[in-house]
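Chapter review: from sequence to fold.
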Amino acid sequence: MLMPATVAHSQPHLLELPRLGETEIGFISALDNAGQALPFRPERVFWTYETPDLIVRGRHAHFRTEQVIVALKGRIVVTTETADGSLKAFRLEAPHVGLYVPPHVWRTMQYSPGALQLVVASTPYDEADYIRDYDQFRRAWGGAPGR
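The C-alpha cell string follows.
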C-alpha cells in the first residue's frame, strides 16, 4: 500500500514521490521541499551501485536517523524488522516510490544486477547512530536476542 509522502508513521512504509511527465517524453521526480515530499528534513543523500546480486547489505538499525530508500534503477528488496519483531519485505522497483524507514528498524537490502539505490537521510553520517549487531538491536528495544 502506497502512502502519501506527507504522512509520517513510526512503521516502515512505502511513499509515492512526485512523478511528473508522460510516457512519450519521460518523467521527473523531485524532492524540492522536505515538508511536501519527505517526513523529515534531509541532511544527507547517498547512493549505492554495482552491488553484486548475491550480497546482502544493510544489516543495521539507527538510533535517530530516518531514511527514505529509492530504487532509481533495477530492483531492491528491503526486509525490515521493527522492535516488536514484525518482519516486512518491500520490493522497490519504481523510481517514484520510496521506502520510509524510521529509527529503531533493522534493515537488509538485496539488489538486482545493475540496481542503483538512492538514500535520503534525516541526519549526517555518525557511526555512533548505528547498531550493527543484531543481538544488540534486539536488546536495545526489549526483544529477545538470537536469530
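Two observations follow directly from the output. The radius of gyration is 15 Å. The CA atoms of residues 29 and 61 lie 27 Å apart.
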